[in-house]
Each structure stands twice: as C-alpha cells, then as structure tokens.
Amino acid sequence: MASAVTTDAMIPQSYLIRDVAKETYDTFTLKLVPDTGSNHTQFQPGQFSMLWVFGVGELPISISGDPGEHDRLVYTVRSVGQATNGLVTRTVGEAVGVRGPYGNGWPMQAARGHDVIVVAGGIGLAPLRPVIYEVLSHREDYGRLVILYGARSPRDLLYRKELATWSRQKETQVLTSVDYGGMSWRGHVGVVTTLFKYARLKPARSVAMVCGPEIMMRFVTRELENYGLSRSDIYLSMERNMKCGIGFCGHCQFGPHFLCKEGPVFPYEHLRPLLEKYEL
Amino acid sequence: METLERVIAEHPFLADLDSSFTRLMVGCAKNVRFNRNDYIFREGDPANEFYLIREGKVAVEVLPAQGKPIIVATLGEGEILGWSWLLPPYEWKLNARALDNVRAISLDGKCLRTKCEDNHDLGYEVLKRFARIIEQRLEATRLQLLDVYAIK
Amino acid sequence: MGRAERGLVVAESALAARERSWNGAVSLEDYALLAASEMGCLISTLAREGYSVVGPTLRDGAVVYGPIESAQNLPQGWTDEHAPGKYQLEPRNDGALFGYVNSPQSWKKFLHPPEVRLWEAERHGSSFHILNNEPKPEKPKALLGVRACELAAIRIQDRVLLEDRYRDPIYEAHRCRAFLIAVQCTQAASTCFCASMGTGPVASEGADLVMTELTGGGSHRFLVRAGTERGSELLVKLRTTAATEADLRQAEAGVQAAADGQVRSIDQNGVQELLYQNFEHPRWEHVAARCLSCTNCTMVCPTCFCTTVEDTSSVTGDHAERWRKWDSCFTMAFSYIHGGSVRNSAKSRYRQWITHKLAAWKDQFGTSGCVGCGRCITWCPVGIDITEEVRALRDGGNHGDS
Fold this sequence. Notes:
heterotrimer, A: alpha/beta, 7 helices, B: alpha+beta, Jelly Rolls, four-stranded antiparallel sheet, 8 strands, 34% helix
C-alpha cells in the first residue's frame, strides 16, 4: 500500500459511487464510499478532493457533504465540460479515483461564538454546505446562522428541500434570490447583494463565508463591508487552475499563494490587494 | 396607532430629514393596501406617486414582445418603489405587481413635485435620496446583467 | 503567509543533514591538485563506483549536458559567446576542458525529468487497478561540471520539491544519490549575473567535489577540494598532488575574473516591492509587444519547476496512464478555469513569470528564484533581458533599443 507522504500523493484511491442525485438539469450530487482499505473518511468544511474518472481526467471538486459523517465523501458537480460530464454520468457501483482532501478549509474555529453569515452564489453553495451542517450540528458553539443564496434562475437552485429545512431551524435565517425570475417564482428577484437588507445581522459579532463567481464575491464583500463587517471577518474561497493539488505543479498560484496549500479559503483582508489586480 | 408622520419620519429613506420637510412630505402621504397580484402601476400609466413599502413583496416586471412578463427585481419591506414621478415625462416604464398582500405609504408625486419646485432645499434633499436608490439599483442591475452563473 | 505562521513541519532533506555533519573550515590542506590528464580517471572511477556520469558534450553546435564515458567527450578547446537571443561556440587555444560558461539546458532535466510516467492503470469492469507505482531503480548520476549558479539552482529546487509540505519522490530518487562535481567559472558570459544574485561564481555548499580549472604555465590542472564526506572518499581514490598557495591564488584570481567580467546585474535591494507595487507599470506593454510566449525561458531556466498532469487512455479504454510533464506559465492553458484563462494577455504572463521568479518565490521559499545564469536572456528569440526589465521598472522609463 502506498505509504505516507513520499509515495504517491499522485495515486488516486478507489472509491465507489453509492448514489447519484440530480439537483438540477446540469448539477448532480455524488455520494462516494471507500472501496478498499479503511472505511473512514474525514475532511474539514471547505476542503476539496482531486476526483479522477478513468479515461477522462482529474479535477478539483469541493466536498459538499456533512463533515460529521465519516463513512462517505459527497460532491456536488455541475456539468460544464468533458471532465465534469464524465463525473456526473457515473453509475452506482462504478469506481472513481480520489486524492485528498486538500486545502485549508473554512475558519470554523474563528467563527465559534460568532454569528455565521454564509453567502453563496450558484454552485458556490456546495463548498459552503459543510459549514451549514457543521453549525447546525454544533448549535451551541455558534450564534445565529444567516444563509444568503443567489442563483441564476429558480431551476438552478440547489438543495431546495434542505434550504426549506434549514430555514425552520432556530436562530437560522435563509434568504434566496434569483437573477431571473419567471411567472411562478414568488421569491426575491435580484442579485444576492439585494438580500442583505433583509438579513438580521450583527456585524460586530459576525463571520462571513463567501463562495461564488469571483465578480459576485467582489460585490458581496463590498456590501458586507457597507454593513459593518471588518475585512478580517470575511472569508472567500478562491478558484484557480489545479493539476496536482499538492503544491508542485505551480498552476494554482494566486499572487504568491498556492491555493492548494494555503487556500482556497482566505480572509478578505489578505485578498483585497490581489483581487483588485486584473489578470493576476 | 402610529401617526403617518412618525412612520414617515422613522423610515430609513427619510432619515436626517429636517422635521419641517418631513411635515411637508406627510402632507402628501396616505396609507394604501394592495392585494396579492394587484397591479400597483403599469407601464405607460402616468407616474404621479411613489411608495414606501411597509409590508409585503412587490415585483417589478418587464413586458416582453412575446411571452410572460419577466420579473427584473423584487422589493420588500422598507424599500422605495418608483422614481419615474420625479423626472419628465412622468410615466411608468415598468409594471409593479404585489406578490402578496402589500401595505405601503403612497406619496403624491404631483404634490411633492410642486413643493420641491417651491422649496429647492426640499427638492435637493429628495433628489439626493433618490439618486442613492437609483445608484444601488443600477449597480445591482449591472451585476445581474453580467450573468455570472451562466456556463460560458 | 510565512511558513512559520502556518506551523509546517518541514521534511528535512537528507542532503542538508549530510552537509551539516561535514563541517570544516577550508584551508590549504583541504585542497589537492588533479592533473587534467587524470580527468578520464575521475570519470572511470565514478563509473566504477556505480554512477552514470553526465557532463558537457558537443552536440548540434552547442555544449549540451549528456552521458560521458571518457574525457574525450568533454568540449575541450571550445568556449561559448552569449548575448540576448544569441549563442555561438568559438574555439579557444588553451585546451581547457570546461572552457565554456553554461549549456542551453541545465541539469534540471536529469533531476526533474521533462516527462515522467507517474503510474498506469487497468480497468476491470467498473473498477480500476493502479500498477507500477514504484519508481524503477536507476544508476545514480554523477553530474560533472556543475557551475555555481547551477548548484544554487539545484539547492533551490531541493527547497521546492523536497522541503515543503510534500516530497516529490521522483526528484528525490534522482537527486539524493546524485554525485555533484562543481567546476567553478573562471570567465563570465555577457549574459551572466550570478555575482549580483549572490549565487556565484564561488560554488556554495552542496557539491561533493569543488574544482577550479587552472591552465597556463605549462601545467593544466584542477584545484579540487571535497565538499562532503562522500566527495572526500572519492578523492582518495584519485591520483592527486598537494596544492600550493600559488595554485590557490591562481584559482581565486580566475574566479574573481569571472565575477569582474560580469556586465549585467540585478540590484536585489527592494526588488520584491518593486515588482509587487508596479503591477500596472507601462513597461509591461513594452515587454508584451516583444514576448512571443514561446516558453523558452521557462524551459532553459534551472529553477522553473512547473509541470502539468496528463491523463491518457488507450483506444479500447482498458488502460490508462498518468504522465507528468514540464509546463510553462506562458501557456494559455496554464491559468485556464471554467470561463477562460485568467492570464489572457502575453503581458500578464510575462509579468507573472518575472514576479514569481524575483518576488513571490521569496515569500514562498525564502530565497529569490533566480540564480543569474542568464539562460533566459541568451535563449529568448527576441532577446528580452530580465536584468533590463528590472532596471526599466526601477527607472520608470523605457530602455533598450527594441
């Protein structure tokens, strides 16, 4: 068996597909269980794995499951090209290669004792879902939970049943908005920043975790600052090209930071000078 | 029962407004209600009022050449609906429809326009506040246009 | 974020440990003389010790590092002329064996190979099985003729590939058993600037043997000292004579000449800030108008380490392989994410390369990423000069006649 750090962090472990659930017309949630060796899985909210499909390729995908469940790894994948399509078209019982988990994860420790504001755009809700699970299963360790979620249109919304369940938890507020409504949508229409005014926030004791397209994150952080959050209490999850996931290939550099080692989560205070630079 | 003056004075839109101005505004104000799916105004109608929403949600819609109306924004409690009363031709450019039961304060735009012409200080205060709203809506609209979640 | 802040436990390289145990002040007694005629013996002794010897050879009108079997393979009597975008071999009349400055490619291709198969896999129904994941044992290499800048580059790659969060097993397999014989420069090429980078011409720690070629006075010889215990053990197997003060002085003068002969430099003071704070400097447009994104600079650079991972499969779909190949930040694919490349313009890619090399590298690994070997200047088809670009950023104007 491959041992420790030296041997091959580049060799995928075999996991079996246990379930493929359709979230939307192009997004699927895969449940994977270990194929051989230890049955135990472990990850921090915000971490990602490198998922490999035989004959197709390998991709970094955020883990979107419950960190309290140690017998599976769950991923929500949007099919946007050949490699992601390869993942979402797997069937139950097929093997997929998994490396990781990699990355530094969301600041759950720093968020203890604070209100947690989760701001998600599109598929960005997937890497934040583990945060929601973690907060809801350790309720006394955290303050209020506010979930602000923006998607393109009603048919792009992920985890609709869970969103409803979460909104019924105590001290939890869930607000959802879409960019394009439709006749049957009776919810908010507008970008996710327009939801802030409805959120019950205590900026002084809040930690915000933001994930979505980079433009959306820039608008959101500006709005969070307008509402009184400090830059060191706002965290973003960044995305760049990744090939190895272990700090050797050099592709994931953002400024001087290797996203696979020092990220993908960073405090906004740290990122601000970098985000301003076009084509960094 | 709250007086109209107090509700208007305490509304965030009018914060820091001189109390004499608040009284001027109150003179043009009245409570209104809309039922679910009522049209508050329609595209093309004369625009002579604007609304401070107190309760409920309002959809701002565009009527396309074909197909169903498209909701471009929703506004809720505490928000201001309508600025076409402020500038000529004083006509609504979009529809506004109540998505549920809506309670609002309606301000008489014609009345307020006259008061603003007579009192430019009041006019400037009103324009400043609307400029802010228009700026926020514009920024949000631009972000919406970018269609950031679409597959490229 | 500094490494200390992240609380990393650093995997210590076996090399650093070995060097620390071999620690002695250098005096005349530590030196010996090896006649140039004994070079063949050095090579055959290394071969007998089980090394596969690699060194400078003549090929395709250039000095190229490749397999060496005898001293006849060395580029005796040749030197190299370098200029931006220009390289030319010229004869020399002193019969020096190492009379060139540096080769187009560095030793990188032997320690961090350009193409490596990481593993292969077979599909069985709906599952897969990975085979052959152990690196195949190879004879260790002896690198003969490592320049000071190249030695510094190897140590920089040690830091990146062995001493960070993960250890690269492939680099480790090639590097840790490699025997390094440094040969210090006694002349500089016009594109060299190792002196200003603090990486040469004196060889730093890390070589098993350090030699300086001495010609003239009717006596062609090498001043040599051991840099490690392993080097010392090899040295006793060779026929050497005692070195004199005069030999030492001649060697020092030679190395000094290599330093004095350098016409290019990078002023290291504040170079990090210079790059970080000039993201929108007009000079970038000037470079962008010339840069072809040909990736030559990254290929010839001895410290560039970026790679890509390629997964392939057979036509039948039963067999898959994962390969690791050299990559370059100058390609569009390098920064591609869904929606497009982050660095679309040649300007942004050149800026990324030089900023990483001279600024970000320091934050990441504690030293500059550049060793001043000048290869990127020599081998750039349009002659872009990294030292000139730094100067232009500092001076705020446009330099050069391009």
